[in-house]
Amino acid sequence: MAKPAKSQFVCQSCGAVASRWAGKCVACGEWNSLIEESDVAAAPGSGLARTSKGRAAKLETLARSGDTTRRLPTGLAELDRVTGGGIVPGSALLIGGEPGIGKSTLLLQLGAAFARAGRRVVYFSGEEAAAQVQLRADRMGLSDAPISLACETNLANILATLGEGRRPDLVVVDSIQTLWADALDAAPGTVTQVRAATQSLVRYAKAQGAALVLVGHVTKDGQIAGPKVIEHMVDTVLYFEGDRGHAFRILRAAKNRFGATDEIGVFEMAAGGLREVANPSELFLGDRQASTPGSAVFAGVEGTRPILVEMQALVVPSGLGTPRRAVVGWDANRLSMLLAVIDARCGVSFAQHDVYLNVAGGLKIAEPAADLAAAAALLSSIGNVALAPDRVYFGEVSLSGAVRPAGHMLARLKEARKLGFTEAVLPAAGELDAQGVKLALTRLSHVRELAEALEAHPRKPAGVRRGSNRETMP
Ligand code: TYD
Ligand code: MG
């Protein structure tokens, strides 16, 4: 006679197994997390063998059969660039960003472009009333786009709405945190609700072949709220970033199952909605004060696109025991490392100075090649010597002070040339065929050469040279 299947209690938080129920998991201390599950593995031959006989899955080769990843161009070149060429039908895309950054604006523009191309677009707004969305559409001149708009937050109602009429090509949900399912007790915005809503919608999108776009709020530390769980459930995660003080908005992919994640899209928030910025360098360098000490232009690359951006440093004598270091748009650890390298290898000490470093325009730089530009800005500020206004910098600085080669050197130089720069300071190492690029190149193998050229005098406080304020580097 077969024994009845034993049951066990599994903690949903840490996975610990207990033989009886308790209010608190003894392993991780989480409350109310034990759930009864039947223990099939404990009864070999009985439980598993009696389950239904599995159906064999269809095995395929790696060669693509047909065009399985057909993409729908979005009508916004910058969005296409970030998604890797458009939105894939049946995929789920999550877009996160701070309140007021322009997520709803972007999605309304996307929806309108899709709808005008004859595709069916259903837009669920859980945050704003229909009148608010209509007002925005009016302001952006999109009122005539045939979008189906609904203000609905109940998951069952949303699925029922989607079941009616022609199958939608694009479903927008603004935002996932406002949705709720009747069956669950939890409040909207909790992990349980957000996860359940995302799961149902993703299942719908995959089954129907509709592209799903979800808006997700970010928490204070920049993560999408309702934590990482939803990032795992969707195919693409985009972050919409920017500084509210600036009009630039940057769209960045954090995860993309259909393309690369290093491309960025640049937009400008204007009166009539988001405007695409085809040449971001012009914008980022727009209001540069080239003759001020501490300003250096970095020739960077984001994805495949070269972008020039100004790095600004301010180095002032410190009145504090521990001098301040503040960074905007760059990594604070990277700054500390660079300061230590300049101190140790060039003999220029920042120990008595507060150091502020800012990437102009609200861009965040993650490339190590920005080291040389940051070093130039720092040395220029501490020495109170303005750098040549038409010169760009790039190159990674190692702990030994050696300048290491960077990728895409030619693309960086070409972009600099295009924007009217005449000189470049770059790594000595690395293959480069710069025949056609009309730039005066200074190739460095050690960061010391930069310090020497700038005459940043070792261990001399900045105040000594103040007043001389020379306009160009020797
Ligand atoms: P919104 O898309 O509502 O942001 P989110 O959905 O990310 O919270 O954008 C809000 C901001 O954008 C708001 O402060 C006003 C500004 N805006 C413009 O400057 N121009 C426009 O045409 C629109 C529609 C918005
Ligand atoms: Mg919004």
Explain this structure.
Helices cover 25% and strands 24% of the residues. With 474 residues, the chain is an alpha/beta fold. A 9-stranded mixed beta sheet has the order 6-5-7-8-4-9-10-11-12, sandwiched between helices. A 7-stranded mixed beta sheet has the order 15-16-14-13-17-20-21. Helix 6 runs parallel beside helix 7 (227-233). The longest helix has 18 residues, at 191-208. Magnesium ion binds at residues 103-104, 127, 174.
Q: What is the compact description of this entry?
A:
25% of the residues lie in helices and 24% in strands. It contains twelve helices and 21 strands. The chain has a nine-stranded mixed sheet, with helices on both faces.
Features:
alpha/beta; 25% helix; single chain; disordered C terminus; binds magnesium ion; binds thymidine-5'-diphosphate; 474 residues
Q: How are the SSEs ordered, and which strands pair?
A:
Elements (H helix, E strand, L loop, with lengths): L6 E5 L5 E2 L15 E5 L8 H4 L26 H7 L8 E6 L5 H14 L4 E5 L4 H10 L8 E3 L4 H9 L6 E5 L16 H18 L2 E7 L9 H7 L2 E7 L5 E9 L7 E7 L2 E4 L3 H5 L10 E8 L2 E13 L7 E4 L3 H15 L6 E7 L11 H13 L7 E3 L2 E2 L5 E2 L4 H10 L4 E5 L12 E5 L2 H7 L21
Parallel strand pairs: 4-8, 4-9, 5-6, 5-7, 7-8, 13-17, 15-16, 17-20, 20-21
Antiparallel strand pairs: 1-2, 1-3, 9-10, 10-11, 11-12, 13-14, 14-16, 18-19
The structure holds thymidine-5'-diphosphate (TYD) and magnesium ion (MG).
Q: With helices defined by DSSP (H or I, 4 residues minimum), what is the helix count? A: 12
Main pleated-sheet profile:
9 strands, mixed
Helix content: 25-40%
User: What is the strand tally?
Assistant: 21
Approximately how much beta-strand content do the residues carry?
15-25%
> Shape from CA axes?
globular
The oligomeric state of the chains shown is single chain
Uncertain regions: pLDDT < 50 for 5+ in a row?
Answer: 40-49, 456-474
Determine Rg (CA atoms, Å).
Answer: 28 Å
Mean pLDDT: 85
Bound ligands: thymidine-5'-diphosphate, magnesium ion
Walk across the major sheet and give the strand order: 6-5-7-8-4-9-10-11-12
Structural class: alpha/beta
From the N-terminal CA to the C-terminal CA, the straight-line distance is 95 Å
